[in-house]
Amino acid sequence: TILPTEVGHFSRKQIQENWRLGCQVKVKNDMSIKIPESVMGVKEWECTVISNKNVATFIKEFIVELPKGEHMNFIPGSYAQIKIPAFEIDYGKDFDKALIGEGYVKAWEQYKMFDLKCKNTEPTVRAYSMANYPDEGDRFMLTVRIATPPMKADKSGFMEVNPGIASSYIFSLKPGDKVTMSGPYGDFHPIFDSKKDMIWVGGGAGMAPLRAQIMHMTKTLKTTDRKMDYFYGARALNEVFYLEDFLAIEKEFPNFNFHLALDRPDPAADAAGVKYTAGFVHNVMYETYLKNHDAPEDIEYYMCGPGPMAKAVVGMLNDLGVEDESIMFDNFGG
After folding, report:
1. Pairwise CA distance, residues 115 & 90, whole Å
2. Treating both helix axes as pointing N-terminal to C-terminal, what angle do 281-288 and 307-319 enclose, rounded to 10 degrees?
3. What is the pLDDT of residue 35?
4. What pLDDT is attached to residue 39?
5. SS3 185
6. CATH number for the domain whose boundaries are 198-329
7. pLDDT under 70: residue ranges of the chain
8. 48 burial via Cβ count (<10 Å: 0-12, 13-18, 19+)
9. d(CA 330, CA 74)
């Protein structure tokens, strides 16, 4: 029988299915256990950087390939770990402006980001969601946002604290460099044996696992018998990446729709003829879709993005009667 100390860790459905915390179970007889294949499939490799370009002002698409002959089995939505060595990095000297891209360097210079320096005194490990899906080959593809120090109160520059260790390291890497990666990890995976409608909702670098899942559901599985919608929120059009991928999927799969939410009206998006709705993504999802949906509680929700966005989305869904077990989310994105 489940103990009172365990109740808060499970949903009602899991309690009905007799889920238990391993640390709370006293084993009195022989016990048969089944370990997920993904747990046994984790490996570590020395990988080679093949691409590290900016896809938005502050976000890199970081791609590394496994050693020749190596293969990784994974389910889309998994995450990887990268080893971060001790280092001293000078953004102005160690970041390749050509890899950041001419269109984004101006903003970096405006915020004096090339004046930043980062020091890491001991090796560590960081986790990032994988943006690639299995059919894209034996590689890790991550979307990484540079973690800058907070701004000073008078907005005159950044506070004198260390920038993000992992993002600084990743932004300094160039094609040909070697990095130590391991994976796959995690259980943020689509429910494949379901016919329920699917909604993905994301923002920022939280794009990664959602892209992986959507590309797999469409490009690999050719799913046409489930309604699928993706709501993605960004400040402005120039912070949106992989847009062409999703617009192409929308044309190929009538059961898939991409919904772009921009924080405020964007003249650049208007000029480019890009369809969007102004507002925060949780409000846009409610006003344009869920408000008039017959049964929001029957949809599966997959979410990855910044903390405030996730909190707003969960609050809105709970208000609509959506149970927590229908809301899947990735803690490593954004």
Report:
1. 8
2. 30
3. 76
4. 67
5. strand
6. 3.40.50.80
7. 36-39, 331-334
8. middle
9. 16
